[in-house]
Write a structure and sequence with these properties.
This protein has about 100 residues and is α+β, with helices and mostly antiparallel strands. Helices cover about 30% and strands about 35% of the residues. The longest helix has about 30 residues.
Length: about 100
């Protein structure tokens, strides 16, 4: 191998090692920015629940083993239907049918 190729490989390896920590830091920052919240009411948005008492438009849904008051944003929804949580106000969930 020629000395130019060896120097090129050494430079490439050194740059890769030096920039690796920067790349990892950028990736971790992006992941934190775009990750869904893990706690609080923001974490409920987008989750699915099952209707326990008909939503006319109010009733109850079961979410992760807990009963919640819910309001249908689409009118009547019968028992057993899977719904998606769109909004939370206080302890009341606003839901639509899961498509």
């Amino acid at each position: 191998m020629s000395p130019v190729v060896i120097v090129g490989i050494v430079v490439f390896v050194l740059l890769a090692v030096l920039l690796w920590s920067q790349l990892v830091e950028v990736f971790q920052t992006l992941r934190a920015v775009f990750r869904r919240p893990l706690t609080g009411k923001e974490a409920l948005r987008g989750k699915t629940a099952t209707v326990r008492t008909a939503l006319e438009p109010e009733g109850t849904v079961s979410l992760e083993g807990e009963l919640w008051k819910a309001v249908s944003q689409e009118g009547y929804i019968e028992v057993g239907v899977t719904v998606e949580i769109r909004k939370i106000e206080g302890l009341k969930l606003f839901v639509i049918r899961k498509v």
